[in-house]
Prior knowledge:
elongated, single chain, 4-stranded mixed β-sheet
Amino acid sequence: MAANNRRMSGKKGAQVGSGGQRRRGLEGKGPTPPAEMRKGHKKNRIATAKAKQVQRRPAPRGRGGKGTSELVVGRNPVVEALREGVPANTLYVQQFIDNDERVREALQLAADRGGINLMEAPRPELDRMTNGLNHQGLVLQVPPYEYAHPEDLVSAAFDDGEDPLIVALDGVTDPRNLGAVVRSVSAFGGHGVVVPERRAAGMTAGAWKTSAGTAARTPVARATNLTRALEAYKKAGIVVVGLAADGEVELGDLEALGGPVAIVVGSEGKGLSRLVGETCDFRVRIPMPGGAESLNAGVAAGIVLYETARRRA
């Protein structure tokens, strides 16, 4: 009996106290993931290399220059951006995505516009590209905006035989306000918008959407130093008008609006910065009998641009 027990103990199989580990090991790890999601596979390396094209690049120095590329993330934001004509060069679609109505519309809009690359990418790569944001399987790459130089706006106006009408933004950080100003400048015959290079809103997808397509024909210039850009305008014969709640001149009394003018709009909270305010030839207030303390940049610029266009007409 002892010998038989020894022979039985030498047999292979689950032993007492094993906890069923061998049984769980036989259950497998599920279906094999697609090639694009398996590290080391050729298709995974190709998908990763393509996705890395969206990494942001620093803006080059020089006249005007470009901004940085931007990602629009999520199904609704992507569809809205494509509807509004926001410039785009690549639409990334997650592999094996649920093909709902928004996904189909995004693909159709991108195909109809032309010039937009369609790329599939595994979900982990989209997660990395968007820093973990809820992309819902759709990511739209917006190319860097090509800014003009502040002097280019003046040259274009004089070349057309017109008095320059320019709006400069001082400390405006909301891209939607920038887009609204661009739209107003376009509506009232202005020649462009100037924004500082730092601590200011740039031409993002949000600004493009708010401009309602007018950003395609109204240039936005970027100034390394806004004060110096305004001083250069003054040397070129342009009157610099700053909007301020405590301005010395009321809008209706300013005769300078009939000639070459640069209108400077500050932030809603702080208004014009000290140096920019000191550079202005006039500090103008908009009469507000309703008692409001201030207007946002888009509304204020629209009022002054309307008054300017009315006088020039």
